[in-house]
């Protein structure tokens, strides 16, 4: 499913709706990864051990999730105040 194949993915999935859902899911995941890489400097990790690398990734994912939740909460509060 996630290999770049020319044309349709019908050789992998059975229905057109499932193909569309999987494409949308993949594009959403790619957007999140891109945001994490650019916004939190995950494109380069100069820490030497696997444990330190894992720690950097885990903390950056947590911070990203907090930022997304805070933005949603602020948007909800703004609409309630109007």
What does this structure look like?
By secondary structure, the protein is mainly alpha-helical. It has two domains: 1-39; 47-82. The protein is 68% helix and 0% strand. The mean pLDDT is 78.
Q: Main attributes?
A:
82 residues; mainly alpha; 2 domains; flat
Task: Write a compact overview of the structure shown.
By secondary structure, the protein is mostly helical. The chain is built from two helices and no strands.
Approximately what portion of the residues adopt beta-strand conformation?
A: under 5%
Rg over CA atoms = 18 Å
Distance between the termini: 44 Å
Q: Name the average pLDDT.
A: 78
Give the domain tally.
2
Count of DSSP strands:
0
Q: Strand count, sense and closure of the main sheet? A: none
| Helix-strand sequence | HH
């Amino acid at each position: 499913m996630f290999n770049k194949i020319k044309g349709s993915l019908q050789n992998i999935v059975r229905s057109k709706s499932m193909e569309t859902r999987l494409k949308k899911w993949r594009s959403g995941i790619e957007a999140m990864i891109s945001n994490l890489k650019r916004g939190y400097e995950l494109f380069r990790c100069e820490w030497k051990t696997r444990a330190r690398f894992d720690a950097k990734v885990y903390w950056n994912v947590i911070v990203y999730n907090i930022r997304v939740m805070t933005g949603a909460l602020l948007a909800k509060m703004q609409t309630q105040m109007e």
